[in-house]
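REVIEWER CHECKLIST
Item 1: Sequence provided? yes
Item 2: Single chain? yes
Item 3: Sequence as submitted:
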Amino acid sequence: MMEWLNPAWSPNFYSGQNDVKGIVIHHAATTSIEAVAVTFSHAARQASAHYAVQNDMVQQYVHEYDGAWHAGDWWANTHTIGIENVNATGEPDWLVDERTVETCCELMADIAYRHDLYPLKRNENVWGHKDFQATYCPGVLYDRLDWMCDRANTIYYNTYVEKEDEVTNEDIEKIAQRCAERVAESAYWDVDKKAEWGAEGKGKGGYIRNSYNVMRLVHDLLIKVNAKVDALAAKVDALKK
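Item 4: Structure as written out by the authors:
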């Protein structure tokens, strides 16, 4: 799970100029997330990114609606969100810890949800820094971008699609239980009223009225189930296109 650090805002950004169309992956060329914040804090450095991740930690430097100076390309700087992955080792390998990669994928899924980028796909809405500029960055992560997209898409589905739209057996059991409880309530209510008002008249009317309420409850719950099924079907159809 992502651990959000306090933001360390950078002065290096294009104000209000980021129409988010994708994500650019970087490696930080440092083993310290604190060093990333220090680097981006200097205006003379003329560099920034929106986020850096290390192990479970995430830190933000530029608002997503502002363009960060991260890709060496005008379009990328004003249409993408840059994520720096802090390294586990230094030169020459600049390796990245698997926990950091996993956190990056979680952040990618989160960004995809907020900017309607799902599904993430390499060279369509996810790139490495070297796709825009002659550089080694994102280092060892460049050959893993396809895998990272797949992993982020899995996280997205499990977090946002399945929980919101999937109707589970548990949901159905809850609906059945609620209906059974309402039927029982109707029966008890009718018995009580018959004792109070007699076997005819209001007692019978009370039973009919409460039976109607149960049917209304079932009707309303089925509408909600159908709405969830329709929403899920629409997303499946969209993925097929």
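Item 5: Key structural point noted by reviewer: The chain has six helices and eight strands.
Item 6: Recommendation: ____
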